[in-house]
Amino acid sequence: MSDSPTDPLVLDARASLVRRLLARASDGALHQPPELPGLMLMRVDQPYINTCGVYEPCVAVIVQGRKRVLLGDETLTYGEDRYLITSMDLPVKAAVMEATPQQPYLAVALRLDWREIASLVLESPRAAAGGEARESRAMSTGAVSAPLLQAFDRLLALLDQPEHIPALAPLVRREIFYRLLVGEAGGRLRQIATVDSQSQLIARAIARLNASFAQPLRVAALAREVGMSVSTFHHHFKALTAMSPLQYQKQLRLNEARRLMLSDRLDAASAAFRVGYESPSQFSREYSRQFGAPPSRDMAGLRGQPVPAAA
């Protein structure tokens, strides 16, 4: 059950998180405290569009600001009243819509621990009736509650008391996962945490695809590995990711090529070859469709401005 955004408990927890994030996160950087593996802190001081990357399985809570995420041809927009759940590795485009130096975009994310979640499934009550039917995508949002924000606040507070992290951090993480299981996104988490569920089988295929996206895609072999027919595999893959396997691979390739050109200063032809393209002209066409400009023009624009961390 969600709480009102004007609930004093929600407001107090959010205000505390704002203070903690401002003290630790810097503009455009993704801060990952080594004392708490899997925790990610984000701050952005100005809006940006079309940042591409792969979101790993995690829960992300916006503490201040608003964001838009494009998954395939579907758009998710969420802010301080919603959290984002990503239950599989998914290539996306993202845009921070509200951020200023005086009131920056602030967010905190935590990687999902499927072993911990699976152990909680049997101990937690199910979410509201119908929740599982609504959650067909591997990315969705849920209503933020005071207990969820308070748990995140306690997790960040441990950074100021590192001697207590070994004993208390596992308990707080477990509470966060519990709050998610009994919330709106609980149905999706239950499905993916269930051994040999169709969602988990697709997650295995996605992991294999992520590990070898530069290689030719053989959908029949991938379907056979997870024990599905090609048609069933296509159906469930698209239902979860909003993309076909080929579209998924293409986004992975283009995202990585863009990163190589921007971070490693590779030319377009070298980046295209590195990610599996044999034709530079095909790469340029697909890159232009994905990012709205050919590689050379896109790089010229990106290299002239700071690139925020994808989270």
Adjacency order of strands in the biggest sheet? 1-2-9-4-7-10
Instruction: Report low-confidence residues grouped into runs of 5 or more.
Output: 129-135
Major sheet, described briefly? Answer: 6 strands, antiparallel
- Percentage of residues assigned to helices: 40-55%
Q: Pairing-aware structural class of the strands and helices?
A: alpha+beta
The run of helices and strands is HEEEEEEEEEHHEHHHHHHHHHH
Number of strands: 10
Distance between the termini: 26 Å
Mean pLDDT: 89
Question: What would you note in describing this structure?
Answer:
It is a single chain. This protein has 311 residues and is of the alpha+beta class. 47% of the residues lie in helices and 19% in strands. It has 13 helices and ten strands. A hairpin with a 7-residue loop joins β1 (30-31) and β2 (39-44). α4 packs antiparallel against α5 (165-181) and α8 (219-225) packs across α9. It is globular. Residues 129-135 have low confidence and may be disordered.
Quick gist of this model?
The protein is an alpha+beta fold and 311 residues long. The protein contains 13 helices and ten strands.
Summary keywords:
19% strand, single chain, alpha+beta, 311 residues, 4-stranded antiparallel beta sheet, 6-stranded antiparallel beta sheet
